[in-house]
Amino acid sequence: MSDLADSRVDEILEDETEAEQHGLFARLTRRENDRYAVEISTALQSGGHEEQWYPVGGSVGYDASVFDAEADARDYFEDLTTLSSEAMWEKYGEQGLWVTR
Q1: Is pTM beyond 0.85 here?
Q2: Which of 14, 24, 90, 92 has most Cβ atoms within 10 angstroms of its Cβ?
Q3: Cα–Cα distance between 54 and 5 in angstroms, integer?
Q4: 43 in helix, strand or coil?
Q5: What does the DSSP 8-state code read for residue 87?
Q6: What is the domain count for the chain?
Q7: Spatial contact of 53 and 59, defined as CB atoms under 8 Å apart
Q8: Is residue 101 part of a domain?
Q9: Dihedral sign, CA of 51, 100, 63, 87?
Q10: Secondary structure (3-state) at 29
């Protein structure tokens, strides 16, 4: 695993899933500290994604999409991969849990 965010991943619970409406891929992981993270990677025009994965919001010290409970992380993962940008902003914007491209 090539980046700092990946080094904390203990187990991938949900493999990469394309969220085409947002131009990204998402995955759900359990980290070494027994917290759960929804991580994203930018979609590439080739159909794949970048190699690096980050919690929503950025790569350096920002962990808004890291949760104590697996159920909360799964709910966010499901929303991220199915809801529109507008619905995500409405539901998560005030919590800092939404990204913009």
Answers
A1: no
A2: 24
A3: 6
A4: strand
A5: H
A6: 1
A7: no
A8: no
A9: negative
A10: strand
